[in-house]
Amino acid sequence: MKPAAPLLVLLPALVLLPVLLALPAQVHGGGWELIGTFLKAAIQPSLDPLVLRSLLEGLGVTVGMALLGWACSVVIGIGLGIASSRLVWRSLSGSVLPAEVLRRLLALPRSIHELIWGLLLLQLVGLQPAVAVLAIAIPYGALVARVVSDLLDALPDQNLNALLLSGTAAPAALLTALGPPLLPGLISYGGYRLECALRSATLLGVFGLGGLGNELLLTLQSLEFRELWSGLWLLLAVMLGLEALIRRLRQRWGMPSRFGLGAGSSGQRGRELVVALLALLPVLLLVAQALQVDPMALLQWQPLPAMDGQHWGTALALPWLPLVWNTLLLTLLAAALAVGGAPLLLLWVAPWSWGRRLLQLLWALGRLWPPPLTALLLLFVLKPGVLTAALALGFHNLGILGRLLLEGAEVTGSAVEEALRCGGVGARIALLYGRYSGLARSYLAYGAYRSDVILRETVVVGLVAGTGLGSQLNESLSSFAWDQIALLLLVYAVLTIVGEDLSDRARRRLL
Amino acid sequence: MAHADLLLTQPLLELRSIEVAGRQQPRLADVDLTVQPGERIALLGPSGAGKSTLIAVANGLLEPDRGSVLWCGEARARSKRGRRRQQQRIGTLWQDLRLIEELTVQQNLNCGCLAQWGWPRAVLNLLLPLDREACTAVLEQMDLPSSLLNQPIGALSGGQRQRVAIARLLRQNPLLWLADEPLASLDPRLAEELLELLLRETGAPRALLLSLHRPDRIQGFSRVLGLRDGRLQFDCRPQHLSGAMVEALYAGRAQP
């Protein structure tokens, strides 16, 4: 008895059964009026000019940090990506060893969430605009490096070797042979990273690194829901605008979509692309000036409390097993909720023409709304714990996977679904049979990748909802227990590297 | 039979002064057509004549801008339930077959019954393919071995796929069979076989409306229609179709 493709997509949604059974025990009774007020405030956001001005300023800072962090990560990523490419090292020196070593090393910055980088840097150099930029640039740079080296290694090496044999200098040969075929995939991925950077910058703000996130947190904590919604709607407009712009540019320049796995896109309008990239430079400089980002200030480290080695005993005595177990449970719950929830919701609204629009709005809110704020909101009515954290993290990732599911449904095409509808089959079953069959594999493969991201993100809700390694990290950070922090980061890194490997295997099996 | 409630004498499909607008000229203009049970109708015309549009109007995929469509004497039902009941009596053989590649032959055959099944059976079919006997029966009717039932569609040959698609229609058991250029892109032997099967399965109370690009395969049909620029040019018995009529239909277009 092997479930067919369309059912596989829904299988993770089975997690809803235990979740719904466990939920009533988590409700603590109070706070429902607050949730009601919060929801009502959505349709009557504050229009006070003073509030709007401060929100817009915050939004500007967030967008600026995202843009700068993203630009740095792309530059770092391309450099490190080339440096960790097996193809490049084989062609240049005959040995792939340096590439392998660098790849392993890069797994470390990648495995640590930008929020942890941000909090660490905050301790090291104090609060300044460059912290958020660097916090985004480090893990993103390592992620881009991995994608670049994977893209490079998938290219045939004859062209490069031919150029090198004919005596072309190495940099010129690399650029000529590998640049053009690399570009479409890189631009497409880069656009996607910019969307992520906007979400990360908002999140960093929630933890005090500046920008709109901070305003959102303050309005939520002071229960100023109408002002909170003004900020949310503004952020939503910017995010949807950015997503639409990136989609349009991707289509215009003929770049592959995320779902077009292996689809032969070649890229068009090269000149326009170069002009756009050049135009980005002065924009970045202006943004850096406006935010008063000073790279030199990053070099002035604050004195750290001494690590005298006396406290290693306390650090080792932390309840490691429950901490790790809760982190893993949180990952699995959130991933299953998000991966299974999106197709289930889409099926549910299939018969209504407005259903899909409503769902898209809900998903967009899920994407931009930082998970710790969802967790705070849930804490109005739920007790802190793994389930609350999983709901918050699941909702955020539901937004991301839901959008991807719709992209996948578009790529799959409407023919089979239409044929079923034509024979009198209902909307839901036609969607299940006609579309989910075709997109099951690629959607689940993306879900596997996302689970690995979710594992990294557990720290974000852990800090708020009081569960797993994240909450312990928060405590250790606030008490400057560097030995504990070091151990926690190490455990986190090991978990995410193992998780990454598992999700890679799952993906390879699916595709 | 599932269709005992319908009188055999009632037309299965009536199109009355159908018009479908297009960019420059109408895709269909002033089309009247009645299909009686037992009729097998060939729809001829050059490419772009409006054949696919006519089929799409007949199976309800496309709503005409003007004119009315009656299925078994009823106009398009208002309620979703009524609409679905109507749609079940219409079966379409698509040019690209529209089988679900990721599912097995048996699951695909059962797609013909999804309109009648509720949620639970539809989902169960994805877990444990249902109704083995009924599926075997329709496969055998198509001269295919029951050993194919568990095969994924991807493992079938082109000819087998065609037959599975027809077997799915048998499983749906519609009264009105529509086919949009099913013979295009088939080699002559396969095309001949497919046409034979379709004609064999569509005796009364069923009826067949099949569009054809080429005018040389109209043996076995009871009526021939000619469509050009969205308008019906002739409607006659095959034996009355003259070379001049065919020539006029395709005049100035790429030779069929």
Provide a descriptive summary of the structure in words.
The complex is a heterodimer of chains A (511) and B (256). Chain A is an all-alpha fold. Chain A has two domains: 1-30 and 310-511, MetI-like fold, CATH 1.10.3720.10; 63-295, MetI-like (MetI-like fold, Orthogonal Bundle), CATH 1.10.3720. Chain A is built from 23 helices and no strands. Chain B has 256 residues and is α/β, with parallel strands linked by helices. Chain B folds into two domains: 10-89 and 174-256, P-loop containing nucleotide triphosphate hydrolases (Rossmann fold, 3-Layer(aba) Sandwich), CATH 3.40.50; 98-173, no CATH class. Chain B has a six-stranded mixed sheet with strand order 5-6-7-3-8-9, with helices on both faces. Chain B has a three-stranded antiparallel sheet with strand order 2-1-4, with helices on one face. In chain B, helix 5 crosses helix 6. Chain B is globular, with a radius of gyration of 19 Å. Classes of the chains: A mainly alpha (511), B alpha/beta (256).
Give the overall average pLDDT of chain B.
88
Uncertain runs of chain B: none
Return the domain count of chain B: 2
- How many strand segments of chain A? 0
What does the overall shape of chain B look like?
A: globular
H and E order of chain B: EEEHEHEHHHHEHEEEH
Helix content of chain A: over 70%
The CATH topology name of the largest domain in chain A reads MetI-like fold
Helix content of chain B: 25-40%
CATH architecture descriptor name of the largest domain in chain B: 3-Layer(aba) Sandwich
Percentage of residues in DSSP E strands of chain A: under 5%
- Total strands of chain B: the figure is 9
Kindly provide the radius of gyration of chain B, computed on alpha-carbon positions and rounded to a whole number of angstroms: 19 Å
As a percent range, the share of strand residues of chain B is 15-25%
Oligomer: heterodimer
Number of helical elements of chain A = 23
Largest sheet of chain A: none
Q: Assign the CATH architecture of the largest domain in chain A.
A: Orthogonal Bundle
How would a crystallographer describe the biggest sheet of chain B?
A: 6 strands, mixed
Average pLDDT for all residues of chain A: 83
CATH H level, superfamily name of the largest domain in chain A = MetI-like
